[in-house]
Amino acid sequence: MTPVCLTIGRFTMFRKIFFAVALLSALVFLATSAKDNSSKVPYPENYRAWTHIKSLILLPGHPLYNDFGGIHHVYANEKALKTLRSGGNVFPDGSVLVFDLMEAPQKDNAISEGQRKVLAVMWKDSKKYQTTGGWGFEAFRGDTRERIVKDPVKECYNCHTGQKHHDFVFSQYRK
Ligand code: HEC
């Protein structure tokens, strides 16, 4: 009897260890894949209901016309708004700023909002985005969720470093 019991005991033990290892690997896999996904800047759902900070129209002839020509509006979520309103220069994690750029067709002496060209986003998370000043930079094409930033350092951050003293943010809140 004894050897059989021992064998069964060992087998059960082996199975337990096997399942424990399998479970652990699955958890590690899930944890790492979740982390990879979450380092992507999320689409700023419902940003049109946030606070409008400012607008600007760049016309042909402006040095940034090729990339940013048209009319843009800047929006801030509540966390970012607090810093902007207080005139502070450190945005807390969770602050989100949106740069909503549209064509600006001129007709009958009026400039209006045309089609959306790009939706650019800055999402503050000082741990995740250490290499870009604590901000995640992303841009979505037109009205889609298609991500178009390949290299956030070259395409976004390098230009925003000019505003380092204001946590890399250009826009100011006016009364
Ligand atoms: C050539 C310089 C330059 C580059 C490159 C650039 N930006 Fe900006 N960005 C600006 C300026 C200037 C403003 C302020 C616009 C205004 O005052 O209306 C701005 C504003 C913004 C804002 C609103 C918050 C703020 O700082 O005022 C966001 C969000 C933003 N940019 C995201 C991006 C993203 C994402 C990229 C990369 C795809 C990018 N920017 C690339 C110059 C740049």
Q: How much helical structure, as a percent, in the residues?
A: 25-40%
The radius of gyration over CA amounts to 25 Å
Question: What is the chain-wise order of helices and strands?
Answer: HEHEHEEEEEH
What is the CA–CA distance across the termini?
87 Å
- Strand arrangement in the largest pleated sheet: 1-2-3-6-7
Q: CATH topology of the largest domain, anyone?
A: Chalcone isomerase
Question: Which architecture of the largest domain per CATH?
Answer: 3-Layer(bba) Sandwich
What is the makeup of the main sheet? 5 strands, antiparallel
User: What is the CATH domain class of the largest domain?
Assistant: Alpha Beta
Q: CATH superfamily of the largest domain, please?
A: Cytochrome P460
Fraction in beta strands: 15-25%
**Count of individual helical segments:** 4
Parts with pLDDT < 50 across at least 5 consecutive residues: none
Instruction: Indicate the structural class.
Output: alpha+beta
Shape: elongated
Give every kind of bound small molecule, once each.
Answer: heme C
Number of domains: 2
Mean pLDDT equals: 89
Strand segment tally: 7
Assembly level: single chain
Q: What does this molecule look like?
A:
- With 175 residues, the chain is of the alpha+beta class.
- The chain folds into 2 domains: 1-38; 47-166, Chalcone isomerase, CATH 3.50.70.
- Helices cover 34% and strands 24% of the residues.
- The strands form 2 sheets. A 5-stranded antiparallel beta sheet has the order 1-2-3-6-7. It has a two-stranded antiparallel sheet with strand order 4-5.
- The chain is elongated.
- 22% of the residues are buried.
- The mean pLDDT is 89.
- The structure holds heme C.
- Heme C binds next to strand 1, strand 3, strand 6, strand 7 and helix 4.
